[in-house]
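This week, think about what follows.
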Amino acid sequence: MSGASNASRSGVSNGLVIFGGSSSSSLTEKLCNYLEVPVGSAISGFFPDGETLVKIEDDVRGKDCFIVQSTCPPVNDTLMELLIFIDSLRRASARRITTVIPYYGYARQDRKSEGRTPITAKLVANMLVKAGADRVLTMNLHADQIQGFFDIPVDHLTAAPVLAKHFLDKKIENSVLVSPDVGNIKFGSDFASRIGSELAVVHKRRLSGDLTVAVTIVGNVEGKNVMMFDDMITTAGTVCEAAKLVRKHGAKEIYVAATHGVFAGPAIERLKAAELSEIVVTDTIPVRDEVKAGLSNLTVLSVATLVGEAIRRIHEHRSVSSLFH
């Protein structure tokens, strides 16, 4: 994988403890296997009245602690669990607390687009810092500027190396990378350069929170195999409308890739109707059984090695910047 350490996979030095929240238990096991360290012992659940319960069972006094938890659906539950995890470690005298948030929820509202609306991405950042987080490690934020909402260090990884390797291994000929919306041009351009492909852009118009209409396309897709890359697939309205448009303009096979597979609302039905050759996501969010059953063309790639290597470098006070690329 691009950017990974060439050193042998020996266990990292003492003083590192990695905990996995309920939404990222599988990913935590994989990255701990990569680092050759045990998963930290903790209990998380609910009190009878629905309040979240977290109890740390390992001694963390003076330790470098990492909590892996995506704030994915059920978003309020996973976010509250993460905040309580942080508070538990702070009160147990952990030396440093790093929140590893592969998928950062509440990120869509990153600015006041109209009057009397919140900036939830900043609100969540404030909550994490106030709870006691010393550092944040995350991946493919919905907007890059969210990094600036924190007054603590933020390491912002991209899953592009993992996704690009998958498509390079497929050796898709006569291909073009299509950005499904104008806001994703920078990300799409990076991905296109990694796989040596041309770039085209879809201009869309959003009608509501879960409905978008693709208006036109800038670039040539006629007779080409199209790869579309986005940061997330939520209701799949954007990618499915873009798929209709590129097919109308003569595209052949269509592949869709995203870092975060949220798959909410009508996503499964829309993706099935779109007749895509392949849908590729990573395991920043655990893929539900009904999604796997409903999408026979779904491929899930793991970012465990990438995230694990970042954790190793943070713990050993080494540069993480090479992993950004």
